[in-house]
Amino acid sequence: MRAAVLRDGRMVYRDDVPEPVPGPGQVLVGVRACGICGSDLHFASHGDEVVAMTAQVAPDAGGMGVDLASDVFMGHEFSAEVLESGPDTETPPPGTVVTSIPVLLSTTGVEPIVYSNSTIGGYAERMLLSAPLLLPIPNGLDPKHAALTEPMAVGLHAVDKSGIAPGETALVLGCGPIGIAIIAALKSRGVETIVASDFSPKRRELATAMGAHQTQDPAQGSPFDTVKPAVVFEAVGVPGIIDDVLRRARPGTRLVVAGVCMQPDTVHPFFAIAKEINVQFVLAYNPEEFGDSLRALAEGEIDVSPLITGEVGLDGVGQAFDDLSDPERHCKILVTP
Q1: How far apart, in whole angstroms, are the C-alpha atoms of residue 159 and residue 180?
Q2: pTM for the model
Q3: C-alpha distances in angstroms, 267 versus 204, 248, 272, 278?
Q4: What are 300-332's pLDDT values in tens digits?
């Protein structure tokens, strides 16, 4: 079977991956589309740091259990077609197009479909999914669009955690895929003033297309000079951003941190204390938010077509990882095996 795998920090093409075989409660699916996530790009460059820090978060679980000296399977933003059920397993009929939260259930436990030496992800012709977690794609939604249910759910989760009301002003810092997903969720929730900030002109254009009412170029001055947001969404993930928000935000601001910063960062708690700023860190989503995101896509509440800026086969994944480093060229590249 064909797949793209991470080897020595680079995505390489293989045509000799053993065919996955579904066990009880599992289903074999043919991948229709898989989005390349920014977290995959980061893992390719800094996998050792991710594994080490994850081990500190969950020492009893042995971290991620990933051996970086061996090939690593990735790809967690996917849509797929049902091919074959495991023993004593009820699934939708073959040919049904589905998506799922990226988790594989087995007799030995739970395996996230994120980074693994054994569990195949969406950068492959075929993969295994958990029958109880399958969500058929409704309303004839394009499978390429359905593949972006996962990142849209990340944005929805951040918005849910913020508790924002339609009449409050939202400021989104960073208009990469997660910042864009937050903007889409804010628009879907009826938030009346959405301001987006990014250095990239292309990303600011995309933010407008996805629902931002105003955009700001931080090179021309801090967005806090002209905007007084009730809620700030940090989707940049680089040191210094959180502290800058704490310094500039008005009293009572809610700060939702969705950007994943892997480096040590310094903040001055005094600013948050003096202004009673609420800081909420967020990660991923829950199953209900995943389902709600799929429904929003299928019912036309969110149109993800502006996000999709490229499409490659399995043999082009390595080049796509390189191309995604340029925000003026790409936002989301889909892998279509």
Answers
A1: 12
A2: 0.94
A3: 27, 13, 9, 14
A4: 999 999 999 999 999 999 999 999 988 888 999
